[in-house]
Recover the amino acids of this structure.
């Protein structure tokens, strides 16, 4: 693949105007010394080979959607520890005039019911697999917004699968961990453990089955995956291993243009995909913070962190109590959860003096790979796809390279819960793309992989970039925290010792987690529009990733 030019970060910081804008000011105050990439066309992903695939599409005349799909397809090959051909996906994109939201999460097999799971939902194996939606997202986005064709954008992914690629360090570590847990799942070792072990960093890995599947997807515009040859092999493998997936389940899959839901914080709006995803929690937390004095504190001040933690605890209590497939949220829906009066009442529960363990409120009586792309025409894309728990279910369909997600584990069997498992229903989802708007115009396409930290991370990144004026790379570099349960919160060791002690003094039970917890604190990719045109892009140092542009 040809080398691509990469713009360097600005060497001299620019003064911020009095009114916050997307102006670039680079102050590398955290351990990473990466600079943001500034260019007219940019791609930010968690794996450099995938970044190059996206840039190549734009150099060939494609747009940000072509780049996003080329990147997404490449990531199924070069980062199988976070996603695969059996993933689900979501997307928020600005087409130059309008914001769109796409939900391509799959539904439970029709045969599923609570009775199938007497001991609760299953984390691995075929009984954790719902219909994979990512391939349908690629087709839908390409048909509606792409400039190139699907066969062209899949070329880099096919090449990496057929000719092989050199495994990068972080992914190699996660691969070895995944092998310990999933090595005996049907089809896993045959595809992902050549020579009986996970490949090491710098070793070449080939996936000829994935190359075959990608070619069939390209040749049939995705139909082989849901109705044809690959679908038949998926269903046969399911039946051979006790799964319930049928040809009808796969053929019924359709992505949904669902729009977005949003929440303002001062002059910026954060947009998220509506439920069944957790994005609403980021909106709730922001809405709660609207009624706090967080604006009077600095980004790493004790009270700023405390207020964010408490707001997230309130939001997540409601998230887990109420969020489900949008059509099943009949008792408490998204409007009730985002009602301004309700969020104000929840904010009133926060104490500046102590940490608290909040329960769910009563708003109404009665976990991945993320990429951000943008092009010189103004199109911006936030796209996320995931197998959920690392390699997902561990199930790999022989000869296809299709590793299946385990999104069924997101259901509950709790009677009366809006998220109770049912055939044809979408489970609660952790993966969410994020998008910020200002004055009716696109500002930032961004997001973060990493399970339950994602909504928390969306809030942290938005506040760092928009309230505290940090550039996208500094915001990605900054140490993070995430709520666990009760009063427990996990923090990165890069957080200042006096800040950690201050949180303990307020009653937070602080767990300082080792930096090798690659999923725990997420992997952010951000693209922010600049006032003078072009973009500033940042990529998380916790991953092998790269932001690049031309």
């Amino acid at each position: 693949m040809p080398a691509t030019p990469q713009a360097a970060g600005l060497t001299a910081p620019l003064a911020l105007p009095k009114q916050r804008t997307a102006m670039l000011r680079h102050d590398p105050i955290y351990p990473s010394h990466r600079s943001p990439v500034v260019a007219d066309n940019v791609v930010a992903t968690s794996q450099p080979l995938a970044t190059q695939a996206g840039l190549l599409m734009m150099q060939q005349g494609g747009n940000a959607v072509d780049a996003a799909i080329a990147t997404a397809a490449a990531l199924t090959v070069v980062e199988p520890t976070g996603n695969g051909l059996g993933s689900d996906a979501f997307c928020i994109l600005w087409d130059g005039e309008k914001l769109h939201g796409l939900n391509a999460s799959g539904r439970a097999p029709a045969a599923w019911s609570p009775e199938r799971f007497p001991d609760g939902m299953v984390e691995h194996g075929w009984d954790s697999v719902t219909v994979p939606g990512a391939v349908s997202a690629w087709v839908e986005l390409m048909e509606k917004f792409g400039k190139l064709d699907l066969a062209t954008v899949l070329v880099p992914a096919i090449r990496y699968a057929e000719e092989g690629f050199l495994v990068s360090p972080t992914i190699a570590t996660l691969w070895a961990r995944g092998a310990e847990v999933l090595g005996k799942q049907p089809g896993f070792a045959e595809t992902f453990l050549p020579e009986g072990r996970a490949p090491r960093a710098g070793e070449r890995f080939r996936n000829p089955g994935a190359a075959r599947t990608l070619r069939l997807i390209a040749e049939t515009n995705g139909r082989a995956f849901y109705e044809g040859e690959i679908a038949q092999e998926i269903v046969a493998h399911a039946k051979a291993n006790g799964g319930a997936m049928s040809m009808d389940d796969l053929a019924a899959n359709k992505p949904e243009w669902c729009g977005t839901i949003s929440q303002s914080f001062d002059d910026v709006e954060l947009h998220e995909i509506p439920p069944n995803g957790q994005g609403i929690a980021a909106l709730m937390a922001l809405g709660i913070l609207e009624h706090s004095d967080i604006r009077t504190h600095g980004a790493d001040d004790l009270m700023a962190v405390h207020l964010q933690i408490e707001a997230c605890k309130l939001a997540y209590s409601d998230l887990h109590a109420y969020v489900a497939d949008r059509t099943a949220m009949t008792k408490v829906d998204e409007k009730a959860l985002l009602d301004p009066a309700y969020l104000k009442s929840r904010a009133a529960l926060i104490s500046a003096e102590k940490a608290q363990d909040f329960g769910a409120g009563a708003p109404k009586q009665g976990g991945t790979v993320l990429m951000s792309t943008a092009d010189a025409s103004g199109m911006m894309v936030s796209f996320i796809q995931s197998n959920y728990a690392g390699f997902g279910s561990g199930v790999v369909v022989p000869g296809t390279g299709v590793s299946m997600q385990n999104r069924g584990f997101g259901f509950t069997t709790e009677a009366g819960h809006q998220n109770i498992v049912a055939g044809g229903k979408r489970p609660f989802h952790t993966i969410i793309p994020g998008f910020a708007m200002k004055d009716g115009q696109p500002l930032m396409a961004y997001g973060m992989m990493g399970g339950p930290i994602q909504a928390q991370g969306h809030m942290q990144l938005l506040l760092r970039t928009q309230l505290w004026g940090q550039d996208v790379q500094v915001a990605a570099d900054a140490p993070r925290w995430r709520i666990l349960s009760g009063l427990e919160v996990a923090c990165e060791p890069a957080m200042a010792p006096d800040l950690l002690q201050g949180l303990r003094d307020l009653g937070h039970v602080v767990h300082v987690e080792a930096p090798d917890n690659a999923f725990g604190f997420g992997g952010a990719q951000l693209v922010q529009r600049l006032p003078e045109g072009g973009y500033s892009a940042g990529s998380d140092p916790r991953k092998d990733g790269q932001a690049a542009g031309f």
User: Anything to note?
Assistant: Confidence is low (pLDDT under 50) at residues 1-22.
